[in-house]
Fold this protein.
Amino acid sequence: MFLAFYFRKLSSQKVMFGIGMAYGILMAISQIRIGAYFTSDVIMSLFIMFLFMTFADFMINKVTANIESLMNHNQ
Amino acid sequence: MNQDSLFGTIFQNYGLFPPTLVLIISMIIFNFYIFSTLENKFAKTIIILIAFVFTLIKTNALVSETAQYIMSTSDNIKKHKPMDMANNEGNAGHALSLGVSFFISLIILVVITFICYQFWLKKVDNFELCRLFKVSLISFIVLFIGLELVDSMKELWGRVRPYEIGLKGGQFTNGSQLMVIQDIVLSHLDIPEMVHS
């Protein structure tokens, strides 16, 4: 999911985020399937990583706001 | 639960790469930015070297773990054991030697660096590079803290894995089994009014 941040266009970011999310869910299901983790373990893990993603998104938007405006101005 | 699941084995053996891939890409962008903006050669060399060694160590950890899982899986198949017992404590096979593991990690790093430079970073302008630098720094810090937090929680909490309860027999009884036991006990009690009340 973090790979989405590297893309410039919002649509590409959304696609990459969707792929990352789907991969994360598949990974979680596979871990439950082989008995390595309980369902509650993977749900908590997804929740923690989602919180971190939201925090990272907030920080990135904050620190790159001036660069984005400069890029838009130049275009 | 099925420890012989192909789906589970594929994801367990080969599916651990995304966090390391993000770390590698962050390192490449960070180094590229430092290389193209910093004037001081000594500072440039030191920063790039430290970032490179750190990423090499992290990549090596992934390569060793993946190799260990793959070898354990093939060992389990040979011994007619469920193939996903690769992750079970005490069942891990022999990992690669340190030299081979670092060599494979180095090749992986070089290939990813070449791809990122040739098809992506070479073409970005200064504004985009500046944005990518900030994005890579924040992604790296947040991801690193997240992974360390999850690992520390695993260590400190001391959780039991489902296969440990299912295969080796734990001190706990499954909820479904408890219901059956309760039914049997209640059916043998000579107080039917309590059962229905």
